[in-house]
Amino acid sequence: MHVVIMAGGSGTRFWPVSRELRPKQFLNIVGDKPMVVATYERIKSLVTDDRILLVVGERHRKETERFFANSAVRLLAEPKGRNTAPCIGLAAKYIDHLGGREPIIVLPADHYIANAEVFRNALLQAARLAAEGGIVTLGIVPTRPEKGYGYIKRHAQPEKDNVYRVLKFVEKPDLETARDYLLSGDYYWNAGIFVATPQTLLDEFYNQMPHFADGLDQLKLSFDRPEFQAKLESLYDSIEGISFDYAIMEKTSRPVYVVPCDCGWSDVGSWFSLYEVRMGNKKDGLGNVTEGNTLLIDCKDSFLVSRGKRLLTALGLKNILVVDTDDAIMVADLERSQEVKKIIDILKESGSIELL
Amino acid sequence: MHVVIMAGGSGTRFWPVSRELRPKQFLNIVGDKPMVVATYERIKSLVTDDRILLVVGERHRKETERFFANSAVRLLAEPKGRNTAPCIGLAAKYIDHLGGREPIIVLPADHYIANAEVFRNALLQAARLAAEGGIVTLGIVPTRPEKGYGYIKRHAQPEKDNVYRVLKFVEKPDLETARDYLLSGDYYWNAGIFVATPQTLLDEFYNQMPHFADGLDQLKLSFDRPEFQAKLESLYDSIEGISFDYAIMEKTSRPVYVVPCDCGWSDVGSWFSLYEVRMGNKKDGLGNVTEGNTLLIDCKDSFLVSRGKRLLTALGLKNILVVDTDDAIMVADLERSQEVKKIIDILKESGSIELL
User: How far does the CA of residue B298 sit from the closest CA of chain A (Å)?
Assistant: First the structure.
């Protein structure tokens, strides 16, 4: 078995804490460790370190090497972001080059998982299944009618014990549809977690992205050689960004399976989502989550993050997010925190690059 | 005529901008000048500088001397705050000692006045009246049913042209009562502005605060002498704090008059009150007031003050106050901003003296 941890995303959703040079996966935004380290620690009991491959952006290579200085994990650096399909294709090719034949578990580096043991057991089941040649995805058992996630629809009858064939992948629904999904029991959240052997993956890339697959063939000669990074850059320049869901999963003619998994998962995709993760089951109190040096008076359902050196005081707030850093503060309606991108856009337009 | 500017207040209401060492009257919180300087400039055309007496707290003496370095205004420093009655008694005694016989206009240093000319004309009228031996107060014509101010009830019939006898002083009313006051036309806001001759004032202190008046008699020998400050401290140690309203105005048997004044006055007693002053007549827009480096998206009726070096961004806020300084931030329900005292209390209890 192999594990690929995809840590190439850029980081605007947790501004002002996350920045271009400090995206979410490198921040200790949920616990006390960077998310990529937490992701590694969550699965490191499954395989030896040399079977774990991190794929990061070139500009985060140094930082990643520091985080994993005492580990034998492998590292590939993408010259630019091209979404998940090229990342997974590159990883599969590299593992194939190393002689790997066993299933690869592909994990995003920036998700939260409350129950790691349930998660690992689902991965092991998926890997056993993937060894037979199919593509297996984890299906997160939904706990609320969430509009913000993509869904996986399963066949009504299980294929075998607690495994289902996938009927289709569906985009983010509206609220009413999400309610129907939740009630039907046939839908799971798509967490972007896949398991398949290198050969399965590479076959799919030959079928669905032949130009890219040819490029990987040529690149193979350069793996672990000085010219590798330049060759990879040239290949990445010749392709467009596309997700693995869209490029492969929705088009493959192979059997695709889903293993249901009820592990307390969140993609932690916004400050509000992080607030929910941090709240956990503590919903009975006043509903406030705080970090750093804070002083609250009569606040409710608010999220107060002080990452600077200042005291953050709050009085009579309800549903408010405050994030303080050394050079910028954001105060927002907590439920509109995903609109932080609008702030980023204005900063870009105004040339405030030091804040990006 | 003489003017006494009372600048002895402590500054908790505009925390975190105001601090013990930087109370409101020394801050440029409304315009671009410290309020005590704006107060001086508002009335300096009425009298020569040597007839203007500033009364400040001892710890603000140096700062005040700097502000008024190019002026011949006089300065007395109180060793501690004892509310307005001792301050006015001391000022009257000092002006009497200097040979002053003309009416003294007593002004708080930290009020906002939109129309200075209307204000000065009312003061001149009050001074003419006070020369005849009464005590005259300015009555601010109310513009809304305000619960936060004390009121002055006049006699229904004017004493003479636009001057009324005062029937009584009334405490802060509830909202319904404030509405009745506004409708009746017989009530004014009490701005704490008084005019009377030194002799009238000193006679009143003999009658109402005889122990303090005796102390002032003894102190008189020390005015402008090295031992003055120590003697004053000893006198202040022997008395309790009490307001001029309570000690004199509500008890005097002299005629008390009110001169109505519609000058766009505010005591600027809270962040919300400052917000209203800053909004002025701009209520037609989105209702936001900003200061410093700010970026607003879809905010309404909010007050955003960046006095630190950071960018303050706000998203989807309504009725929210944000004040950022170098060492503390306050985020509050704008209409509850007067509760900032609760924060101060907690900081005191926790020994965070560097933030007070």
Answer: 10
